Amino acid sequence: MTTKMTRAMRMELANAIRGRYSTAAHKDKRRILDEFIAATGYHEKSAIRVLNSQPAPQSRQTRQRTALYDEAVRSALIILWEASDRVCGKRLKALLPILLPALERNGHLLLEEEIRHKILSMSAATIDRLLRMPRRTTKTKKPRIVPEPRRRIKMRTFADWNEPHPGSMEMDLVAHCGGVNRGSYVHSLVLTDIASGWTEAAPIVVREGSLVVETLERIRVGLPFALRALDVDNGSEFVNNRLIEYCLAHGIELTRARPYRKNDQAWIEQKNGAVVRKLLGYRRFEGLAAARAITRLYGASRLFVNFFQPSFKLAAKHRDGAKVAKRYHPPQTPCERLLQAESTPVAVRTKLSEIAAELDPLKLLEEMRAVQAYLAALADGEIPPPATSEPPNLAAFVASLSSAWHAGEIRPTFSVEAKPRYLRSLQKVSTQAPVASPTVSLELVKPSATAPMELKRPETPNLIYAEPGQARIQALRVAWPIACRRLEELPNINAMQLFEELCTQFPGRFTRKQYKTLARKVSLWRQAARARGVVIGSKTYRRFSENPRGRRPDTFKDHWEEMAGWLEDHPDQTALELLVEFQARYPGQYSFRQLRTLQKRVRVWRMQAVQRLIDDAGTLAHMSLQIPHAALRSNILDEANGNKIT
Length: 646
Description:
Number of strands: 10
CATH topology of the domain at 164-365: Nucleotidyltransferase, domain 5
Shape: extended
Strand order of the largest sheet: 1-6-5-2-3-4
Structural class: alpha/beta
CATH architecture of the domain at 164-365: 2-Layer Sandwich
Strand content: 5-15%
């Protein structure tokens, strides 16, 4: 019979009944043997042999194998591994015949012949096994924390769409920050339909999640199809609970692309360049005035792009080695693709045909050029031309089309001269006039016959601290004896206070970065002073302050309004740049010890400024998706799907 007992269990049972079996009578032995056979499954002869045998010893002695590679071999291997810059076992195995003689030749390592032979003869697997513990201590693996909204949104790649119906769109933000990605500036929220290529765009005053949802709602109600699926990137303006709840409430499937894989959103990335950058270029736009102008531009371009701009659509792709052969469908406009789609309702097809028959492409193009000229002047700091109620002169615009190609690029937003790559990130500091102190009056320069009136501003005084990169290397070493004498007089003086005193004695010699070096030297001096028996009390943070302990006085109270005005004119300035500017205006009044306080105040000011922009952005709700054609101001009620187009 079969049994599930293991060999150890059988031996344990045999040891338990062996004594009773040996002393029992013949009749009882037969009964014990039958029970043992039934329990263990042994043959009768095997069972008798087991029960009559002597019991096995309780502890079995195992033969211990002596280690081939002792601690001396392991220590020598670790030295060679470190000398090879911690390469893997297979690479170290190939390197040992070269590395070991080189170290011995230069006198860095001297091994016994037995240890040398063992190291050269060990395999790559043995090398990895002996180096397991050193490698484990050198590996630092950071835990990967995935935010909760990102876990709620599933991932979709470019190959997961499988020819969707109209209504599956990709969404992205395009930043209009110019060459400096600082401060608040306008973004463009762009959506494109994968099936038809229908593209929508709307400006957002600041990058904020609630504004993204509000703008998406205004775009959704104006689409000629129901929004079924939405694919976004991994930015925090999209991957948040607000957008997730909005999509759940409206039955929209929300997915996200893989991080750092722009090909997953190839359709929207193509429209960002072919539509948005073609219209606005790479200039910087900020404020409500630019947002209103961009809203008007997108209102005209929405019709021009979707009704008069054919685009290619990939039909098939075949790869033969490194050569890729692509085949495209005939070019069609997004409107034509929607008219040919079977899922488009009849009412929407009829209205789209009526709108396409009434649109004037040159009127739309002329309005786009006019708004682009307005935006270019706004971005360059010029005074934009005033708006007129007179209708545009289309005859002159049509007449200029035949010779416009002589001027090259005619889009006003692309009229910026190209700079070399190494100059693109530099600001034109030399062309910007310094801001004068409010206590100094500005002098008017009398204009000539050709030059306009200009303001002559006083020169900015020299800073107390040297510019970064111009500090003398030996400056702190030369001034250290003076610092030591000051520490002997007052051993509990603060390091920052000592640094300010040195900067006052030697103006322009020290930079901000040298404070940390001084702080380390002061700390070492105090350790040596305590060893000599010098009693060092608490540091003198408020030694020279007459104010009582408690809440510190407002340091920037006298000039905060002036600082706020400076931030209004230069919103991309950092708190450090602001502090340096006002150190130049009021020498000796502000120090770098007040930088953190100023950073907090600047952070609060920026939050209030962003909130003001968000509140003012509500006035743009009625302007979003403005359509210059009267036919698009009427709503179409879709009886089949319940969506409308504006």
